[in-house]
Amino acid sequence: MTCVTDLLRDRTESPPVDAAYAAAETAARVAGIDIRSLDSVSELEAVRRLYEQIWRTGENSPVVTADLLRALAKAGSYVSGAFVGDELVGSCFGFFSPPARAALHSHIAGVLPHVRRRNVGFALKLHQRAWTLARGVGEICWTYDPLVRRNAYFNIAKLAAEPAEYLPDFYGPIDDGINRSDDSDRILVRWRLASPEAESVCAGRPRPADAEVARSRGATVALGVSATGAPSVGRTGDNARTVLVAVPEDIEALRLSDPACAVSWRTAVRDVLGGLLADGARVRGFDPAGWYVVDRGSPTQVAGGTHRHGTHHNEAPQETA
Predict the structure, then answer these.
(1) CB 279 within 8 Å of CB 309
(2) How far are the Cα atoms of 28, 139, 197, 237, 274 from residue 159, in angstroms, in the given order?
(3) The domain containing residue 217 runs over which residues?
């Protein structure tokens, strides 16, 4: 049974907020989970253990500590847990940006592998959206690893979050069982909670892109996959308004089986996708077959202007839902 007590307690009456609550309740019911806000020490200690299990860090290098989560909850930030019965299977927490930004920064969301295909992560994000809208905040931001296909699809197609910035090696070395000391490049996304696109996907209508349709309409491949599975830089200096950027099928497995190839993918995506975003291009969507569909804007860009990495800002571990 879905727990909505914490949502109802803090409800701000308005049609968008009411619709957000309804979507969150439906998503939790479909996933077969109970989602609630967490603030007790025992609950937050369980979150710490959950993240250690997901990221395989061990007790000596926790992703987050219970005392920090306790402070965030007390200060009015967002900390939630997803339960199947009494088992904690997922959690998400975030904190507010400065008042002028009117945004929540969602720092970490994680779901145990054995429940990922039940849309637990989707339900957690919809709970977070309703909670945030009820506080008069209209945007949530977070980062994710651009090489992880399932996260790119989840963020861009299932949630309609907008990639805003490419952040090279954002957190520095992260030595856990997922990242394996790879450079921690991230994409910062912004989720505009009351946008028509967000309302549509939260009603269960994802927005996947179709790379083949884009190619039939003139898109060119800026980064593809070679016959050996390595990145293959394509045409970035032509006049195509839309370009396609590939990512490997399973970067986490590749880091184990072929670390050198994994590093080459990191560098190639940083150069191509990072360069496009730095030059003002917009990610239109993500094809679950492993393609970013990117629209370049100005005539100067389309003619093949110089790509740059730019100087970026800071944050911490990825969401993985």
Answers:
(1) no
(2) 15, 12, 8, 31, 21
(3) 211-302
Q: How far apart are CA 109 and CA 187, in angstroms?
A: 15
Spatial CB neighbours of 23, under 8 Å, sequence gap ≥ 6: 126, 129, 130, 202, 203
Of 202, 220, 255, the residue at which a domain comes to its end is 202
Q: Are residues 65 and 190 in the same domain?
A: yes
User: Total domain count for the chain?
Assistant: 2
Task: Name residue 291's amino acid.
Answer: W
Rounded CA separation 130/57 (Å): 31
Total residues found in the chain within this entry: 321
Closest CA to 30 of 157, 204, 160: 204
Mark whether 198 and 295 lie in a shared domain: no
Q: Are residues 298 and 168 in the same domain?
A: no
Q: Residue 89 carries which side chain, given as an amino acid letter?
A: V
pLDDT tens digits, residue range 185-234? 999 999 999 999 999 999 999 999 999 999 999 999 999 999 999 999 99
Same domain, 82 and 49: yes
Measured CA distances, 92 to 4, 73, 82, 167 (Å): 16, 12, 9, 22
- CA atoms of 298 and 188, how far apart (whole Å): 22
